[in-house]
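Reviewers asked in the last cycle whether our approach scales beyond single polypeptides. To address this, we selected a multi-component target totalling 530 residues and predicted its structure end to end. The input consisted of the following lines:
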Amino acid sequence: MRIVVDLARCQGYAQCVFLAPEVFELHGEEALLYNPAVPAGQLDRVRQAAAACPVQAILVGDQVRADVR
Amino acid sequence: MSGDLDQGRIVIVGASLAGLRAAETLREEGFTDSLTVVGDEPHPPYDRPPLSKQVLLGKAAADATVLPTRRDPDADWRLGVAATGLDPAGKRVLLADGVSLPYDRLLIATGTRARPWPDPAQAALDGVLTLRTSDDAARLAERLTAGPRRVLVIGGGFTGSEIASACRERGIEVTVAERGPAPLVGALGGTFAKLAAGLQRAHGVDLRCGVTVTALRGNGHFTGADLSDGSRVDADVCVVAMGAIRNTEWLADSGLAAGRLGVACDAGCRVFNAYGIVTDDVFVAGDVARFPHPLFEYQMLALEHWGNAVAQAEVAAHNMVSPGPLRRPHLTVPVFWSSQFGVNIKSVGVPSFSDQVVIAQGSLGERRLVAVYGYRGRVTAAVTVNMAKWLEYYQGLIEAAAPFPPGPGAADGSPLVTEFPVPSNVPDPRGLLHGPTVALTGHLPDRRLTLVRPGGIRPGG
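The resulting structure, written as structure tokens, was:
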């Protein structure tokens, strides 16, 4: 699974940092850094973080199936 | 959706953020027929902002930023093959592998590429890099991990500044060379840029402003560069961060209003031809688009912003499958962000569309503030440093064309930090080494604009 955070929308509430600290971290006071490739075993926490985000800035999903046809 | 707009062949040229979000939106809006997405990179759509942050800091691999989808767009992906031409009369896209792709409706989302160093022999020196693609980021991250003695960054825009920030965080010596008076001056104006210069110097960046790089030196390997003030910088790695070039060359013979400034379109993302006549089967979205914005006197704007790529792709896709009366305009207020040197900078509106600026909240000393920009007495932009939660408030002022300067206590009940507005000192972008990321490109859709603004951005010169 992959994640992307809409950082134009993110306001640094950092709920994700508390819920999935191995994936999200604050860099300074309010800049968010995250691991876009969700590590094994972190998916439940990442889904909780996405659900808890006050501005709903976190998208969790699969990458496209871009196999050559 | 009505009529037969949910049927037919849609081709999207460009397989990055805008192309992907448009493909998803087409399916969400009920388009059920043939959808083809063409991309010149071999990778599935990936996210670029982390490339100059997490990836350079060694916190994520360059190939880890592949984008998640909201839904699988069930498209035929033609990846690793560039579009080389467009025949709008015959309704075909020509590909580098000789294939001619027929379409009923086309979306152009070819974005931009990094402006290369202008001297090809110098650019070919080992250790001279750019940063735009994930392959670029992988190369640069590898160089940084190898522990260079010094990195030279040419251009003090957002990308160059973020690269310098990553270097300092990793303990690597870095020199930033910028032709303008300060970093970020193109996007944020000269007054705000003084703060950016102070940030860089406080973090140990060897910042050289008002200079150009006249030559890159080396014998096979890059060893240093000559500057226009007669000095020399010894370094092992050189990152050319001189802004972006819009990928419009493949449209040169198409008859569309496409050129150096981008592909011109109406508020509904429909592309103009070179006579200023709007087409109804060719659409554009993302960094390559220029569109008129009512909040900025209907000037054509070209935005190199993540949020714009998403919003414009959604509007373009909606309009591609909707009849006239149900079409929507793309009116999103521009927003972007940058994290560097421990602070989070966010911007709403167009700071370069301003004549004055005032610090409305916070404190310069604490590097926590809101700068509000005005043009002829109305609010046109705001930039926050570590105060992102206030951005929405100022977006409301911009949308309402509220008077500038904002009244005391407008946001948090406190008086304005600086009592009087000062000139925002937005420079002519031609004097910079970096791109401003927001380009006010005039009112006309016609590509002859490139002739009435001679010179353009001339890198390195």
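Chain B touches chain A at residues 20, 44-45, 47, 49-50, 53-54, 57, 59-61, 64-70, 72-73, 75-77, 79, 305-307, 310, 335-337, 339, 342-344, 346, 368, 386, 388-389, 391 (CB under 8 Å). We regard this as preliminary and will revisit it once experimental data from Aim 1 are available.
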